[in-house]
Amino acid sequence: MIVIMGQILLILMGQVFLVIQLPLAILTILILCENIVQIYAQTRVKNKSSFNSFHLFSFIVFDSVTIFIFIYVTGGANNPFSYILLLPVALGSFMLSWRYLITLTIIQIMLYSILHLYQKPLLISSTSPIEAFHFHMLGMWINFSFTVVLIAIFGLLTRRASIEQDKRLQRLREKSLQEEQILSLAIMSASAAHEINTPLSTMAVIIDDLSHSNLSKEQQNDLKILDDALHICKVSIQGLNHKSEQVRQQLKELEHTAPLNRLFKTELKIIIDQWLVYRPQILVSQHWSEGFDSYIHPIDISLGQAISNLLDNSAEASINNQSNCIELTVSLNSDKVVIDIEDYGLGIEESVESSAGYQIQNSNKNNGLGWGLFLSNVTLERLDGSVQLLISKNGGAITQIILPLWSE
Does this model's pTM top 0.70? Predict the structure, then answer.
């Protein structure tokens, strides 16, 4: 756009102030073609279309050819702006691979040679050679200043793009490391579930045999507690199998049908009810803002599991502070859904608040591993959401889940 505006300015200057007879029809067509290509390129950028080296090479060659025609019809090699043909090579040295850069260099040499072989002088109002020479010197000064400014601007933009690229690569490396951690956790979890299945079955058989023995009432109560604990473990393992089957079923549905229209409020309440089966001692106070009676957003298994993990963390924090209550506040804003889970625990440390969800933390739960918040945040980031820990007014903590609005 800077080049196009510069060309228009020079045409006006030459036509109005220097009274040079310019081929306005050809120049107008050239500028229109440049604008069409510029609009096309901007559209591709806005649509986040990918650009490879060939695309960049094609755009730079197009710029070179239009500049060549512009210079050829306005004086050829005698035009003081002929050296602006160096600008595409300077840009290519920043952006192109060596093969494309060599090809571009050869093209530029050929174009500049054609300017010398086929001269097309301009008709100017002054017939004095000295005045014409002054015009030429003025044009060379403008050309030098214009080229220096353009190279500085494009060099700065290219350097900024290179820095952004380095930052993206760093984020990708961090993401890759995070995914490796998740994969290792998943492998360890699956392995642990497989390994403890047989010991649990053995313990169940022994407990069943002991329950038929002559035991005291206290011993019978202890066996009942152990049997309940084993039942919870078996239900958890069966839940993993059930969720795996659900994932497979969802994948089959996605292959053949579009996702069903389901109310977000209904889906979330189902998740809370299912979670309360494992936490019957917890009282959940729910607060919903307006708009959820018609808001449609399916909640997949991974998001449901992430919400369950965060509910579990808040419940454990309240229990550790001799409370059995948590509060759930769900609000619908213009561009996001916010779920606040407030506990009545002992609060959080500042170090944990700043790194929550991005590192595996030491767990405050009994025999806890500290994976829940980390895995939940990874799941939410995959959905363009996030999770953060905030300090509550009651002295506890607020786990805030932020989800983008669903658009069908």
Answer: no
Q: What amino acid is encoded at 376 in this protein? A: S
The one-character DSSP state at 85 is G
Distance CA 238, CA 256 (A): 28
Cα R_g (the chain), whole angstroms: 35
Residue range 29-65, pLDDT digits in tens: 999 999 999 999 888 888 877 788 888 899 999 999 9
Residue 168 per-residue DSSP state: H
Which own/partner contact pairs does 25-30 have at CB distance under 8 Å and 24+ positions apart? 26/69, 26/73, 27/70, 27/73, 27/74, 30/66, 30/69, 30/70
Tell me the longest C-alpha to C-alpha distance in the chain.
Answer: 127
Residue 200 lies in a domain: no
* Sign of the dihedral defined by the CA atoms of residues 3, 8, 13, 15, in that order: positive
Q: What is the tens place of the pLDDT at every residue in 346-363? A: 877 665 555 554 555 554
User: Taking the mean position of all CA atoms in its chain, how far away is CA 233?
Assistant: 38
Please tell me the distance from the alpha carbon of residue 159 to that of residue 21, in angstroms, as a whole number: 41
DSSP-derived secondary structure letter, 345: S
Residue 404 near residue 385 (C-beta atoms within 8 A): yes
Nearest to 65 by CA among 123, 104, 39: 104
- 123 near 21, Cβ under 8 Å? yes
> Using CA atoms, how far apart are residues 329 and 337, in angstroms rounded to an integer?
11
Is residue 16 one of the residues assigned to a domain? yes
Q: Which of 125, 148, 180 is the last residue of a domain?
A: 125
CATH of residue 360: 3.30.565.10
Instruction: Specify if 322 maps to a domain.
Output: yes
Q: Examine the fold and report which residue of 72, 105, 125 is the final residue of a domain before the chain moves on.
A: 125
Angle at 270 between CA 344 and CA 314, to 5 degrees: 15
In which region does residue 397 sit, left (phi positive, over 0), alpha (psi from -120 to 50) or beta (all else)? beta
CA distances from 267 to 134, 299, 386 (A): 79, 6, 19
How many domains does the chain divide into?
2
What tokens were used for 196?
């403890």
Beta bridge mates, 337: 332, 403
Which domain, by its residues, includes 12? 2-125
345 in a structural domain: yes
Compute CA distances 309 → 367, 372, 380, 397, whole Å: 15, 6, 12, 15
